[in-house]
Amino acid sequence: MKLSPEKIELLSAAIVDQLAEIDGVLFQGGDSDLRLAVNEIITDELMIEERLDAEIHKMLQAYKYEITMGRLNYDELYRKMRLRMISERKIIL
């Protein structure tokens, strides 16, 4: 994951604190419940990217021979496949 659990907790707290300062924003739960919910949302969003990357790496194993022989560039294939999958799945990163 690109952010440590500690950084996610800090970010969650900052988001809840910022929302609390906005007039007209009313919370239906306690601060700790909201922070936990925001923490879960951020973690889930980060996991989408990790799952996508793992899927792409697995798919590129089919081209391992061509990559090893220098016929294909792994980084270029990875980048192209990642962009295509993000576009097809309408993923926002």
Key terms for this structure?
4 helices; mainly alpha; 73% helix
In words, what does this structure look like?
- The protein is 73% helix and 0% strand.
- The radius of gyration is 19 Å and the shape is elongated.
- The chain has one domain.
- Helix 2 packs across helix 4.
- It is built from 4 helices and no strands.
- It has 93 residues and is mainly α.
Shape: elongated
How many separate helices? 4
Main pleated-sheet profile: none
- Protein structure class: mainly alpha
Give the N-to-C terminal Cα separation: 13 Å
Unreliable segments of 5+ consecutive residues:
none
What's the total number of strands?
0
Topology diagram in text:
Elements: H1 5-21, H2 31-60, H3 64-68, H4 74-89
Helix pairs in contact: 1-2, 2-4
Please give a quick description of this structure.
This protein is an all-alpha fold. The chain has 4 helices and no strands.
